[in-house]
Design brief:
By secondary structure, this protein is an alpha/beta fold. Helix content is about 25%, strand content about 25%. It contains eight helices and 14 strands.
């Protein structure tokens, strides 16, 4: 765990409940028969390949996806009846960083749903935005353009915006995607701290070893829920084969669960057998033809024989011969290497 004291999963009150859910876009089903309860104070990671429905699940909780069957409840209220009050952090790749807006203005956008006077903000809205920026250590960046920030600072800005909108439930779509190792660590530590302050967090991720195995609860999915629970119980070779359709060995080392990817066929050195070459009779001695002539024109062998007959016969000379007459080398068989 990233936090020194792992937060135990709460029993009882589910803040997000999905009941036999089937949903998608333009009558195309993406998720099928999903039943899941997210308990108050949970920190849940959604794990699966691209196109498995992780982002769709987050958008369904937000009430932004067509529901074909089943129901979604947020804090006991169906999303079909009322748009839920949930903080949402999109993928950073989807943000237009050239849009002329400052850090403070982005954070205040989280109050849009509760502000009937938008684009004018009330004093309490600005106080709340200032509190969240201070909480996430970005107060000194309030007047800066978002384009001028580092990846970690940008992620904190959108976390502050989400928390201004909801301090109970936080949804994040791949918050560690496209950032360096230090930024990823910083983001995950911030999320764990927020979780220990009572905020329920649901996030998607592609990173198994760096992120998923450190979370208290994970859900493996690919069009449906395949398994859910603590990483030590869910991360198995069998579950990963169902999730990704690939052989992914699982190693347990000093209390850690690690996933090793099998090398691809093109990265392995494949040893091919030496070609079987036909001997050519020259002056009663067997010689092997050079590589490449074995499958050439039928007259190639005859051409090689005539070429060899034109060359003068020279006996090999021993390297240890004394000065004077050359001494013939012992009659040994030479090793032939094929490339």
């Amino acid at each position: 765990m990233l936090h020194p004291v792992p937060l135990q999963r709460h029993e009882g009150h589910a803040v997000v409940r999905l009941k036999s859910l089937s949903c998608g876009y333009d009558k195309q089903e993406v998720l099928s028969d999903v039943t899941m309860d997210i308990m108050e104070g949970d920190f849940v990671g959604l794990l699966g390949p691209s196109g498995s429905g992780k982002t769709t699940l987050l958008r369904t909780i937000l009430g932004a996806v067509d529901i074909f069957q089943g129901e979604v409840e947020v804090e006991g209220v169906p999303t079909s009846q009322k748009k839920p009050k949930v903080g949402y952090v999109p993928q950073l790749e989807t943000i237009d960083w050239n849009f002329p807006v400052t850090v403070q203005e982005v954070v205040l956008m989280g109050r849009t749903m509760d502000n009937r006077l938008f684009p004018w903000y009330r004093r309490e809205d600005r106080m709340l935005a200032a509190e969240m920026m201070e909480r996430l250590g970005i107060s000194d960046l309030a007047k800066r353009h978002i384009r001028e920030l580092s990846g970690g600072q940008q992620q904190r800005v959108f976390l502050a915006r989400a928390l201004v909108g909801s301090r109970r439930i936080l949804l994040l779509d791949e918050p560690t995607s496209g950032v360096d190792i230090k930024t990823r660590d910083d983001v995950m530590h911030v999320l764990h701290e927020l979780n220990h302050q009572g905020i329920t967090i649901i996030m998607t991720t592609h990173e198994i070893n760096a992120v998923a195995v450190h979370l208290p609860w994970i859900v493996c999915m690919n069009g449906r829920v395949l398994a859910e629970g603590p990483p030590a119980e869910v991360i198995t070779s069998e579950t990963l084969m169902l999730t990704y359709g690939a052989d992914m060995p699982v190693i347990h080392y000093q209390g850690m669960t690690l996933v090793a990817e099998s090398p691809h066929a093109y990265s392995r050195k494949v040893e091919e057998p030496d070609p079987q070459l036909e001997p050519v009779q020259i002056n009663g001695t067997d010689r092997k033809t050079e590589v490449g002539h074995g499958h050439g024109h039928p007259h190639d062998h005859e051409h090689d024989q005539l070429a060899d007959l034109d060359q003068p016969s020279v006996a090999p000379v021993s390297a240890d011969a004394d000065a004077g007459e050359p001494v013939p080398a012992p009659d040994t068989e030479q090793e032939i290497k094929y490339v």
